[in-house]
Amino acid sequence: MTGDRRAIVFGLGAVGLWSTVATAFKVALSHMSPLTLMCIASLVSWAVIGALVVYRGEARPALRSGWRTAAWAGLMNPVAYYLVLFAAYDRLPGQEAMALNYTWALTLAFLAVPILGQRLTRMDVLAGLIAYSGVWVIATRGQVLDVNFADPLGVALALVSTLIWALYWLLNTRDHRPPLVAQWQNFSVGVPILWLLLWWGPEIAPLSMAGLAAGVYVGLFEMGIAFVLWQLAMHGVSRTAKISNLIFLSPPISLMLLFVVVGEPVLPSTLVGLVLILGGLGLQQWQKAPAAAGAQ
Fold first, then answer.
1. Residue 292 has what pLDDT?
2. Closest by Cα among 290, 204, 269, 274 to 22
3. What CA–CA distance (Å, rounded) separates 143 from 149?
4. pTM: predicted TM-score of the whole model, two decimal places
5. Selection from 86, 48, 225 nearest residue 164 by Cα
6. Which of 115, 166, 190, 273 makes an SS bond possible with 138, Cβ 3.0 to 4.6 Å?
């Protein structure tokens, strides 16, 4: 297999795993609180990525340096981002939380203006208007002229999660740590904090085997293996545009899994809103494609 073909296989593997995330979140959260899920999943992910760091011979540099960056990065990811995201999934139908979370790429473009000094193009603005009109459709569940959201807190949490995730990646533009080392160090900071929060919080409810299995799945695949596969794809492809569009395969697969596994009926408002969100993201990708092609 050529480098690009191998990268596409890795990318498809990551997207396939991410497509199961909404279903896994909803199944797990039916058995436990968002904090409990976060504790289990982050511990599993920390162990998996740590094993990969050791396997790649990066354990010594991982222990020596980079901890000053990890101190704040670990508070953002996994602690703040996943706690807010899981709280959103706990309140909203999986299809709505998943669709709203897809707007993080647009949030990234808008926040890059004050943080990195980048400029917005007219296409960026148009893409934002289209995508966030989709957010409005989903938030109002199709009652677009009614400002009474079905679950305003759930919608707010989902949108705040995109803000945290976008800020995390923008601030990481100055992070020169190897990706796996950075992820492991961040989780090394975040895991003890999460377990302390669980210890100091309300009484821990007993876990069922189904709940435990769902939590392990989230940590192993969504936070662990999918991240590794996507990093391999990003580093192995000749041009990012060849794999970036693969992410558009995930939403329809996620909706199908939510319907089949969770039994969650797909709302017409979700379909319309998701089409608008993906349309906005598609416009944003399209304007970058000519520049990327010209750079080759």
1. 39
2. 274
3. 9
4. 0.83
5. 86
6. 273
